[in-house]
Amino acid sequence: MPDDDDYKMTPEALALLIGLKPSRERPRQYIVENVPDEERPEAIAQINDIFRNTLIGGRAFITQGIQALPEEDQAKIVDAVRTFRDFRKGDDPHGERDFGWFMFGTEKIYWKIDYYEDDQMEAGAEDPLVPKTYRVLTIMTGEEY
């Protein structure tokens, strides 16, 4: 049976997937500084969309409030986050698709993506477009937000 590492995408592959080009001088480094400022939010949003759907490049946490729900409801909520497309300008002012909320029955569910330097999650990432950025998705109830 394959383990989780068999399904992980390298930062280089993820960078290529969203169209970042490798540096000629350093082929394993990607030139994020060459992404024009006006294209950065969409590039970050694309990585966030891929991450939400696959968890490539990070991990997800559900809070105690979500854990207290029946497993079937938990699965439906996680699936709703994976397929979420209802981004509102007030909730996503930078266009990075790193935050959202929806109603699940009578409960408001929030989710957010935080950016870290690496999987130790000790320091925030300086630039969420750098391919090595480690993403953390947190899903919570409205009371926990």
From TrEMBL:
Pfam families: DUF3768
The species this protein was found in: Roseibium aggregatum
Official protein name in the record: DUF3768 domain-containing protein
